[in-house]
Write a structure and sequence with these properties.
The protein has 266 residues and is of the alpha+beta class. The protein has 2 domains: 210 residues, no CATH class; 33 residues. 20% of the residues lie in helices and 33% in strands. The strands form 2 sheets. Strands 1, 2, 3, 4, 5, 8, 9, 10, 11, 12 and 13 form an 11-stranded mixed β-sheet that branches. Strands 6-7 form a two-stranded antiparallel sheet. A hairpin with a 2-residue loop joins strand 8 and strand 9.
Length: 266
């Protein structure tokens, strides 16, 4: 019996060491909020924008911004009809602001460069990617994403945004007032912790975001956080989504290698 217990202990220690060395840090992930604060979940028929109150074929951008050459990047927000909500980073240069002025960007991929941060999520050719600087940790030690899910209640967008790193998962809720389909206004941010909630109110501030039409749009299939089972209301829907994701990635690979059929290009 002692030998069996000793063997089990050695196996457990080996697994822990192997996971540590190979970046399996999710074993030790800290959830820095109460799970009851998570109120929105994906499902196969989830469509918070069924009444078409906002646009989903572009992004929302803080109105009246002017070009600042000292900034590396600019933020924008994307909402999809399936509930996917994600902030993105856009390469900051003067031509971006020319497109913004015209309310449309037809070469959206040109502005997909990541900010000069330690690491950052962005999209390239319709796919979300994580870019690291030379001094940043190897990719295997980071399991991060920055995105979430939203709903619309009356004239208000409520978004739950998750940031996840190797050992940490955080939750922030943001609210936006829908002034009209092309214009929304930031109302508040709420940061949730195990023992407290920090609220920043912006209702009195002039934080309006205007819609900018953009093509090509990144696919919501490429949003990493949608693969997390805990983001889904039903395990069956999650499994179906993973099946669809696998088909999407296979079709994308065929397009990239020139072996696709007509359905892959639709």
């Amino acid at each position: 019996m002692m030998k069996t217990n000793s063997t089990h202990i050695k196996i457990i220690i080996s697994i822990i060491l192997l996971c540590t060395l190979n970046g399996c840090c999710a074993l030790f992930k800290k959830i820095d909020f109460n799970k009851s604060e998570q109120t929105l979940f994906f499902s196969s028929d989830y469509n918070p924008n069924s009444d078409n109150k906002i646009y989903t074929d572009g992004f929302y951008w803080f109105k009246n911004k002017t070009y600042n050459p000292d900034l590396w990047y600019e933020h924008a927000l994307i909402f999809y009809n399936d509930g996917t909500f994600t902030p993105i980073y856009l390469k900051n240069d003067s031509t971006l602001f020319t497109h913004i002025k015209n309310k449309e960007i037809k070469n959206f991929d040109k502005y997909n460069n990541p900010p000069a941060l330690k690491y950052a999520n962005y999209f390239k050719n319709g796919t979300y990617v994580t870019e690291f600087e030379d001094h940043a940790p190897p990719l295997k030690y980071i399991d991060d994403f920055n995105g979430g899910i939203y709903t619309i209640k009356g004239d208000t967008i409520i978004a739950e945004l998750y940031t996840e790193y190797c050992t940490y998962r955080g939750l922030k809720k943001s609210k936006y007032l829908i002034i009209n389909k092309s214009l929304i206004k930031l109302i508040s941010y709420e940061y949730f912790y195990k023992d407290s909630t920090q609220i920043f109110n912006y209702a009195e501030k002039d934080f309006e975001l205007e819609f900018i039409k953009a093509t090509p749009m990144p696919s919501p299939f490429a949003a990493k956080f949608r693969t997390k089972k805990w983001m889904w209301a039903d395990k069956k829907d999650w499994k179906e989504y993973m099946r669809q994701l696998k088909e999407y990635e296979a079709a994308k690979n065929r397009r990239q290698t020139g072996t696709g059929n007509k359905h892959d290009y639709q």
